[in-house]
Every structure is written in structure tokens, then in C-alpha cells.
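Researcher: Batch entry, complex prediction.
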Amino acid sequence: MYSFYSLQIQVGKGLPTAEEAFNFFTLNFDPDPPDVIETSSRRRQKQRKTTDEDEEHEDSEEAPLVQTQEDLFVIDQSPQDFLEIRKAEYVGYQKLLQLQSELLFTPSFRTVPTSIKLPENMKPRYLEDEGLYVGERPPVSLTNENILENRILKMEEGKKWFGDDGRIIALPNPIKESSTRPPLFHMEEALDPALQTVYRKSKYANLYIAGAADPEGDYQLDVDVSGLIFSHHPLFSREHILGARLAQMYDQYLTRQRNNLTGHLTDKLNGLRNALRNMLESHSGLNPTQALQQRISEYNLEVRNTRHLRDSEQEKDRTLLKNIVKVWKEIKALREFQKFTNTPYKLYLRRENVDRVSDEQDYEDEILAEVVELEAETEEEYQNKLAEYKKRLEEWKLCRKKQAQDDTEGEDEEQDVSESEGPTDEPPPKPEPPERPDLGSIEQWVREKALRIRRKPGEAILIPELSASANITASELCPRAEKARREDVARRSLFTKILYNDKEVSRTDSRSLNTDFRVHFGQIFNLKIVNCPQSISLQVFEEIGSSCSLLAQVFLPVPEPSVVTGSVPLEEFEFSSNQRVMFDHEGVGSDVPLSFEADGSNKQSLLTSGKVSCCVSWGIGDDDVPLAPPISQQPGGGHLDAVSYIGASGLYDMKKIGEWAKQSRLDPNDPKNASIMQLLKVASSGEVTAPEYFRLEHLQEEFNFVTDEELEKSGRFRLLKLRNQEVAEFRNYKFIPALEREVTDTVFQEYEKRLKEGEVIDTKEHLDSHRALVAKYLQKIRESVINRFLLAKHHYLLSDLVTEEEIPTIGEGSGINLFKLAEPKRPLKPQRKERKKVTAQNLSDGDIKLLVNIIRAYDIPVRRLQSKPFVEVSFQRTVLQTATADGPNPCWNEELQLPFSAPNGDYSTASLQSVKDEVFINIFDEVVHETNDKNRGKSIQTHIEKRWLGSVKIPFSTIYSQSKIDGTFKVNTPAVLLGYSKEKSHFTNSGFDILRSLSEGTFITLFITVDPQLVPGESVREKVSLNGDLKKPLFDTQEDERLLQASERFERDAAQRYPDRPCITTVIDLSGKTVFITRYIRPLSPPKELLDEFPNNPLEATPLVARFVSLIPSLPDQVSFSATCDLWSTCDQFLTLLAGDEEEHAVLLCNYFLSLGKKAWLIIGTAIPEGPTAYVLTLEQNLYLIWNPSSGQFYGQYDTFCPLQAVGCLVNADNVWFNIQQYTSPMRVSFDITKANLWKPFFSRTFSHPGLSSVQPEELVYRRTDRAAAAELQDRIERILKEKIMEWRPRQPTRWNRYCTTTLKQFLPKLELIRGQDVAEGHRHELQSLLGDYRISGFPLNLVFSEIRPIIEAVYSTGIHSVQASNVEFALAVYVHPYPNNVMSVWIYLASLVLT
Amino acid sequence: MAELHIIGQIIGASGFPEKTLFCKWGIHTGEAWRLLSGLKEGQTQVDSPQIGDIAYWSHPIDLHYATKGLQGWPKIHLEVWHQDSFGRCQLYGYGFLGDDFDEKEGGRETEKQSEILLTAARHLNSAQFTCSCVIQRIMRHVYRAVNIHTSI
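Model: C-alpha cells for the complex:
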């Protein structure tokens, strides 16, 4: 304890001694605290002295110095003076506790009385006792709990921690009883024998009724099924419906009569009035006391209420009576109309005459009483209002006065006052005095009301009486449809199955359905039960022949144990079924809209429904003991069964379930109800998915490295998700950027735009509002169909997943190889090798090539001198051409390779199927002009010009589905080719002169294929048929089961025997339902305008009708409906949509022909280039004609150039015949369908035609031709085309020759009139003479109008714009010929003129 | 924002009393995980091997997850079912490929073939089987399954 001072001195002496050094480093230099105990200090002092002395001996020289220092140090030992020595403070334990208790709070561990924990005046509520589910609380020791409670109670708002039962709110114990992770077993070790499980037979331990195990103590449930009555049945005729309605209303009437509410209320009213009158009379002289007034007003109120009630009841009575009479009149009218009676109902209206005078007196009295009362009431109301008004006026005046006072106060204050008071103390508006009610109108009102709801005075009382005494017309006298209905009724019988705990225990006998649609069973079933009854239900079955179908299920309540047999009446349980049933006879069906109004309005759909009368009760044993289990043993005593409450069908209805849950006050905490509560929560919140499990993920939020919003915002993730969902815009994305920043917002722009715009379709693109609507409609259909196909698409077959190559058998492999070795090599006869098919996913851009082999052409129009035709093939804007050849029948034999790229680089089957591109094959003539350039002297300039002669276009989808196209096609040549002529055919000497002339035209032989060969997509239907044992049909249907099976069999047989012949018996309609094909054929009359052109002979109109059909635009189904599935629309749908493929055209044409009185069939076959298609066959004067419905052309049976290649089957309204002849080519096929060895009919003697009604409408409605719209369209097309041609000629000026244009325009309507068939030679001369100085080349194009784009495309492909000559002029004329129903024929005349 | 690709296949099963087997599978994740693409549950075809004991399915699994947290790593559960000649299906065993599913080696792709031992269907209530011929005992089945690449 050296002071700093002493140390300084030591330092001054030079080096410190070892002891000093030790001290220096070890001792504390702080000044000594005053409370250091002095004694100890002294002791140390002494110690120090001794040590110092010891040192002295060691180095004596320094000793004196040190000594003095020591003295000095001893002298001023100052710290000692400040030291204070005290005893250590010790606090005793008790005292400590006392101290602590002041500072700390220690909760008591005594149980807290419940009353403290609850708010005042509250009794504890035990949810468990109330039957609510309370989870098991986590285990906490009582002491701890008490401590916790006591502590909480000291806190502010401590009570909020306690539940209603006075305990701390706690979640159920989260700890599971068993570990969720299954124990792991290791392979190496044998299983511990102790862990071996022991097998015990399972049993419904908790479901058995105690004591039921022994055979004596059984329980018996008696189910009495008395019978059932249909309130609606599909076989009801219209009269039955009305009859049922009448009977129902009559029942209602009877109940009302029995209750006689009106009478009771009238009596009550009279009584009240009398009492009121008496009261007033007895106190008339006196001043009414407060109590009396109160009573009077009460009476008044009562009178008023009773009167209202009586009025409404009277009105109900009156309307019911009126309705009964109305329905009866309807029945009478219906019976009159249909001329037979179906129901035995007869309504008599009994008149009960009344005493006129007294009746009138009563009536008047009643009205008077009412008027007086009403007047009094209105007066009272007026008085009340007046009082109110006065009060308000008073207030207002007061307010005004106050304001006036305020205004008089100082000017400077005014500002503040208005500011402060302005918004708060606005003077109330001056109250309006109430209007005095018009007492005169009251009486009038009362009289009107009485007239409406009451019988007129003196009028007889009508009492309806319903009897079942009418005679039902005998079946022989009824029309055919009604007879069919009755036969159908007679064929049906009904039975019910009794299901106990969802197991069938017995069933009633089958009873036939009576004509009054009542079935009596009258059977009682005694069920001996061992299981607790959970549900008892009846299933009503209907039997037709040998097949039976479930009509409805009725749930019966499980009776109380007190309900025993004999004591309960029969009860009626309603049932209904939402099955859709339709008939082609008088039966109205079920869920089919029908109307009783003449104009077809007020449609209603009735569902099959009715009542089962039955009762369930507990049986009585021999000794009158009810055979019912005691109450306590019934599990789930108060638990309502959802199914028995709302019925099985209601389970799919969220709303119903919700209602039920609300009504039965479902305990949301009970784990039994967890799933249903979850369902309801999800349904109400509109969320799609909710996990079925609960996961405790604590600290999830804390450990997130991004928020949900960021995750949602991520463009990359969004892109990935959209690609996965196969959203159209993103479906074909191959690569998605790995980094967020590389995903630009522009990617989503189009998608978002589409989402936003939804269904708005640009009318600009479609030129015509109607087409825009159609496009919209098609879009909708497409979406719904796609959804349907999504399901089908996910239906994988084994072959889709597992590719198992068959192991070649040894014999086969080696045998062939041996032969091959011996075989001579024949290089000049190469063997055909099967090309390898490539699946779509291995492809990328540039891999696929379209090979077009152009072989030769026939009968090309020739120029006067010579012609040098060549062929130009354009596909996806790639244009290739052949070398030029010579003459009218050139031979090129050249292969052109065109690259193919799929949209968005997606080579999946679905994408390839929807490629809309077409291959254009144009034949041109090369013309060489040599012009002497005058200015330059001798140089000669050569212009090469190409002139369009004709074209063939083949859609890529056809090539894709056919995999190759090989054949001779007719070239679409313009009706007029200026400057060209046809060389006469050389071989017109054969016997088919007439036919020969028909097929005159230009032809080209082509071979087109795709390299490498692509696997064409399988259609969904094929997949279904392959998957023959598929139980549930993929598509809905309304066809009979038997018919479908037969058609499947028929198609399968056909496919097995003749795999290459198309056979169709059922098709899918636009709503995705399977429909039998013959239902599509029905004579339908063509538009009247077409027939009017040939008033004398309607048969003359045939070509015009065919042309009309061919003018409806074609749209292959594959393109429109993405998946490969043929959808057949009916003719009216087709005419509304104005788009369809060959089948729709063929059906329409066939139906027209039938209505024209021709014999016509639909040919299902294959043709080039369409592939599988439909044509129309007609028989005219022993000659069969084959019509191509999409071009409107017809061919003779023996026409070599007929595009139809194979005939698969023939269809008309009655039957389908499948071709079982040796050949399929129409030339070699006999069309005599009566021969069973050539044509196999679908409906034969063994399976007769069941009378299928047509799906077609009875009559087609045509809209009239809109000439104004056509003219407008014409102008628009002309303008657009002119703009386009100028756009395609960016370098040269485009001059239009007006004179020529007008001439051409006049000519176009004539062309339409003769349907472009026979070209008037005169036309050319006419033109030539008009424009003598010009060299003209040009042609008219005829197109079907669907959109503007194909028109532009067609014009572009003719290449007319590519004329390079400097002095060229153009002429363009457009003519749109309107046909009924917005079908348009577009003519475009294009010409180029060069001044010579 | 981390992403996880799960690529692999369910190869097959062996060691069950019958050889006609198929497999139902599913992948479970925590709340933080979002499925970006791929199917997270499915069922294989039924394989009934003529030769050998292993029923091969070679069923591909290809999923892409994004996650905002690290908890709740994907687990795959597998159920092996037997289909008898009447077309009835019975559960033969089930198992989880749990925590080692997310085993990683320095973020690099690892390829490993796991064998999952399936717990036999002893936990199921016997009442679910109407047919009493179901033998109920612990069966030691080797489930040869799942080589899974995980990468983050």
C-alpha cells in the first residue's frame, strides 16, 4: 500500500530493488480506502520492516538510504488516518426474506377460486359439458398452474387469459402419442422377436351394440315400404304434369279448408272490434284514463294486425282457387287439343248460392268498418306527424332566434363565429308541415282491395271437387306417339333396395309402373341387426326389360328407441333425381325444358321426383318388449348425419352443406368435423387448394430469405410456371433465362393484354361484324373442347410409357438372314425400305424438310405462239421454282426441298397439327419480251415476265396427317385467262363423253412428303377405342348403351378386317357428346332464293345449291380444335359459324339433296389431298355422281380424276353400310347397298333401327342477303388489295388503268352468274377490242370469303405485282356476290396491261 | 431465392411376396417451397416381370422447386402396391426418403442410388381389407429405388 509519492522518491534513486520491483507490479496503487482495517495495515507495516531489514544484510551500501526513506515513510503514514474499520454487514435470513418480499412478488401456489378468474356475475361455462369438443390440454402440474394463474391475475387485464370455464386458455396438446416416424429396420440384423407383431382379427369394436353378440339379445328394425308416387316422371305426358299440379293444388286447398284460417281470423277480428266498441261505449262519457287509453291503442293495434293477416289469407285463398280453375281449364284445353285423355282427373265446381241481400249487407258492413278504422288510423298518424312537425318547428324557431342574436354581435367577431359555428351548428331546415291525408281515397282503396281478394257480394261460393272419374282414352284411339309412351310406361317396373349402413340388405319385389304413376309395394322387412344403425336408405330402381337404373336414393331417419312398430304412421319422403331423360314420343322427359305457353315462353324443366311412403320402427318381441337398443349405446347420439340430412346429391352442393353445417351447429373444434370445416372454409374463401395437414413450422418467417411478394414478383418463376401450365404464349419456350434481370417485362405484355381484353375481338381483322362474333364463339367452343381434351390427354396407355421391343424369335431371324444371303443382288430393283419415323421431341429448326416432287401436268392453257410453263412452290415464304418446260403437257420431274419451321420452334404433335400454313403450287408461264431500246441503238433488252396460270394449295396439316401425298390434282385455273386458250383434248373418243367433259381442266401430278417422316398424332377417339376396356366413356352421350356397344363392335370389326377403310358410326358434336351418325341426316330445304332462280324445275338448282355449300369457308377441325378430334356440328350450327370441314359441308349438301328429292348418301372415305373425308353420293338416272362438297364439283363414278380414292362406308338417315367389297376405289365399287355381300348394314334384322330422332333442326332459317353489306365489303377489299399491290412494288410506280377496271367490273357479275363454268369467248374479244393498244394478261380469281388474309395471300401468290416492265398498268376489280346467310363469293379480276 | 431441381427415376422394387407391383409416389415440402414445374405426385405402371425378381418401372421424376426458406426440404414418399389377377390392389409397403434426400456435396450434383426399406402395411386398419387373406406381419422388403440428383 505505497502511496504514489513514496514511489516517486524511490524512482529518483535509480534502479529499484527486486522487492520494489515486485511491489510495483503486484500491489495496488490506489489510495487506500478509508475503511481498511487499521490493524491489518500495521501488521503489514511490521512485515515490511522485517523484510527490509533482511535486505539490508544483502546490500549494505544502500541500507542507510533506505533506512531514512523508511523513516520518512513511516512518519507520514497518512492513509491510516482515513481508514475506518467496521464489521461486515450480515442480514439474517428472516430479515432477508422480509426485504425480498418488499421487492419481489411471489405468487401463491394455492388454487385460485374460479369466481376471481371470471368477470363479475359470470358463471363458469364448461364447453365440454355442453357437448362441444375441447381438446386435451397439455399436462401441467397443478402447482405450476396455480402459480401461473395467481401471477397472471395480478397483471393488468389478467382476466383475458382465462376462458369461459375459468381455466387458462390452452391449445390442445400438440404432442402425438406415438412417433410419426416409422422405426427403421436394418437389413443386416434380424428383427427383434419382441417387436414381432401379433395378428388379431379386426372388428368394429365400437360399432357393435353391447349384448348383441349373443343370439338371443337381438334387435329388430322393421322397414315398411308401402309404395311410391311420382310427382314427376320422364314418362309423364303434358297432361300428367298439369294433372299432378292440379292434384297438388287441390290438396293444398283441402288443407286450407280444413285449417280455415280465414274464418278464424275473421271471427277474431269481429270479436276484437266488438270488444273495442264496448269499451268505448262504456267509457264514452268519462274522461279516459291513462290505462284505458293504453288498452284502446293496444286493441287498435291488434285489430290492425289481425285485419292484415286475414286479408293476406283471403288473398291466398282466392288466388289458389283461381289457379285451380286455371289449371283445370288448361287440362281441358289440352285434352281438347290432343283429342285423348290421359289422366282420370275431373274437377267439379260446386256452387253454393247465398242470400244476396244479407251477403251484400255483410260486405258493405265490412267495408264500412274497415274504412272507419283506416280513417281513424290515418288521422292518428296525421296527428302524430303534426305533433312532430310542431316540435321541430319550435326547435327551428329557437335556432333562428339564436342565430339572429349571433349576427348582431360585433362585426369583427362575425368571421370567427361563422367559421366556428358554420360546420357544426348549421340551422336546421325549416320543417315541412305534413300533408293532410286524403280520406276520400281510402274508401276507394278498400273497395278495390275487397274486389281483388274477396268474393263479389251475392256471387255463389265456388267449391272445387276433384274426382278421378274421367275416362282415360283407350290406347287404340291414341296417336302413335302417345301409344309409344303408354307402351313405354307398361314396360317399366320399379323396385327398391333397402340399404342398411350402406349395405344392401333386401329389396322389394319388382312392380310394374301403373298409368297413374303410383307403385304399391306394401312390404315390411324385419331387419335383425347387430351393428348400430347409422344410416337407412332406400334406393329406387327402375327396370326396363332386363336393365335397371338407379332413379334416386331416399334416406330414412333412424327411429328413436321409443318408436315401435304399430305406433307410427307411414311417412312420405320426397326424392328426386337430376338425370336427364329425353324421349321421342309423348313423354316429356326429365330435365328437359318445356313450355305450356303457345309462344314457347315461360320454359321450365321438371326433374324426376316423387314421394316414397314408408316407415321405420323398432320391432316388438314376443313379450311386447321393444327390440330397440338402449339410448346410451347409440354412438354419436346427437351427431347429425350429413347424408341423411341433405341427401346424397346435396353433398356436391357447397351451399347446402354450408346450410346444414350451420343448422346442425357443427362443432368446429371436433376433429371429426375437421375435413368438412376445411372444405367449407375453402369453398367460402374461394381458394383452390388447402393442405389437408397441419405443419408446425416455427421460425419460418424468421428464416425466410425472401418475402412472398418477391417470390411472386419474380419474372423467371412466373415464366417457368406459365410454361408448365402450357399457356399458349409460353408453351413453346425452350429456354428461360437463368437470371432474373434477363427476363424482360415485354415477355408478359402480350399475355397480360390477352387476359385483360379477354373476349374482345378485333373487328378490323375480320372485316365483318358477324365473322367477328363467329370467331368469338369458335374461341369459346375451342376452350371448352380443350378442357375436355386435357382430361383425355392425361390418359396414358401402357404403350405411351413403356416401349418394349419384341425379342425376335430365333427361327425367324436366322431363317430370313439365310435366305437373304442366297438372294441374288439386284441393284436395279431396289427394295423399298421403311422410313424411320421420328418423334417430335428430337427435332429442332432446320431438321424438317418438305419434299415436293413435281412430275408433270396435263392440259395447261397455252399461249398463242408457245408456252413455257414452270412451277413455283411457295411455303412459309420460301419460294422455289422448277425449270421451264414446253407445251401444254409438260414434264418436269423435279424435286424441290423446302425448309419447314414450326411455330415458336415447338415440334410437339399438338403444335404440328395446328400449323395453318399451306403449300402453294403455282403454275406460271414464262414470257420473254424483247424490246429494242431506241435510245441506245442496237442493244436489245429482254424482259422475262411470269404469268400465273393456276394453282393448287395443300394445307400442311393434310401432309402431316397423311405423311405423304401422291396423286394427280386438279389445278384451280381462273375462268378466263386473257391471252391463253385451251388445247382441245385429244382423247374424247371414248364412251364417257359427257363425263369426260365434266372433268375437263388442268391437272398436275405431285408427290409431297415430309423428311424425316413425322409421327402423326393419334386422335383421342382412337386412343379410346384402343383402350377398349375403359369403363367410363370419355365423352358424355345420350345414346342408348346398346347402340353404343353395337357401334363400337361394328367399328372394331371393320377396323380389323379392313384397316384402311374409314368407318364412322358415332361422332362427337360441338358440346362434346357422342351422337350416332345417322341423326345428322335429315332433308333440309336450301335457301328459297336459290330455288327461286329455277321456278320450273327445282332439280336445275342442284349445281347452284352445291355451289352455295362450297362457298361456306372450310376450316379443318384439327386447326380449329387443336387436338385431333372430329367434331360435327349440325347444319344450323354450321350455317351460324360459317366454318366447318368437309364433313359439315357434306352433311349439309346431302340434306339439301334429300330435300330436293334426290337419292343421296354420305360417303365416308379417303380422298386426295384431304385424307379421310366425307363426300356425297347421288343417284341420278342410273348414274352415280360423287360430289365434292367443299368445291361444289361433281364427278361420275368412272371419272379417273375423281379425288375420292377409297369408299369406306355410306350413311343415310336410316342406316350405315360398310364396304366389304374387294376394292375401295369408287370406279370398282358397286354402290348397290341392297346387296348384303357387298355392303354390311349396321341396322339389320337382328338389331333394328330404334327410331333415332334427328339432331338437325326441322327447318333452317336463313337470313336474307344483305346487299349493302356486300357492297361495303367489296369496296373495302378493293381498297386493301390496291394498297397491298402498291406496297409489294416499292421500287416502281403502280398505275391503275381505270378504263380497264370498269370494264372488268362489269364482267365479274356475269362470271358469278354462270358460276365460272363456261367461259364466254366473246368476253376476250370484247376486252381486246376495247383495249386494242394494250397487251393484256389477266385472270379472275374466285374465292370463298372468310377473312381478308387468305385473299391477300392468294393475290400475292399469283405474282401479278412482279411485272417489271416500265410502262405497265394494272387493273383490279372486285365483286362480292352475296348469298343468303352471309355467305359471300368474292371475285377478283387482276390484269396487267402493257402498251404496245 | 433458391431453386431446386429434382431429377431422377424410380427404378423398381423387389423382395415383395408378389412380383406384380406398382408404385404411388409423392413429394412433400414445407410451406416455403413453390413448385414451378413438373408433377409432384403420380403412379407408375404395373410391372409384372417374367424373368427376374425386380419389377422395373423406370419412372421419371422431374421437378423444379423454388423456395424462400430452407426449412421443409422435399421428402418423397413411396407406396408399393400389388395388383392381383382380378385387378384388386393391395398396399404392400411404404416408405419415405427423407432427410438424406437433400444431401449435398458442396452444391455439386451427386448421383446416388438409395435403397429404401419400406414399412409394411401393418399400420393400416385391418378393417380396410375385406379379404382376410392379407397376411399381416412385418415384411422386410428391399426397395431399390430412386437415384436422385439434387442441385441448388
